[in-house]
Amino acid sequence: MIGSSFAINTGPPLDATSAQMIDFGTTHFRQVMWGAWLQAVGPQLIMVFALILVHLSRATQRLSGWLTLLGASVLMMVSLAEVIFYMSALGSTPETIGQTSNAIGHAIQHLYFIVAAPAVFFPLGVVLNRSKILPTAFGYLALVLGVGFFVLGITSLGAKILSPAVTSFAAIQAIWWFGASVALIARSSRLSASRDTND
User: What is the pTM of this model?
Assistant: First the structure.
């Protein structure tokens, strides 16, 4: 869903004038709104999956589990804030709202790398490394992703707008989530049998 959102909503030119922003909002209204919907709902579903992993790992009462919940909340806040400014950039009153919203939206993208993604992947990696619901590689890869996002966030502080090379790194996490879901499905029968034995 998130990948589709970026394909649908390519965004206005970075240096667009107020007139160009108004024209973009008129001609791309439906694409932006559909892209915004996908970008709002997609992360929500991913964070639900992350919390399911915490629950299945029996980490809901551990610090790492609570920190994953906190990270999921922060990530959702950042994602929804970005979506809000996508939508407000479609306005035409006042004339500068498009430019202002576009600039704030790009500023919010920094937060995804600085805090939101690391806040999910670091504690979730710890949760997974202490459980057997997924192969151990997923826990370590989650920690690596957390480090990668954090490093890119810090090294990009000097840029007003994140480069395509940096923002494209965000797509790598989709592979992790997809792989984790496939691995969980593959292990579901064994997990269910184990839980029945423990109960």
Answer: 0.85
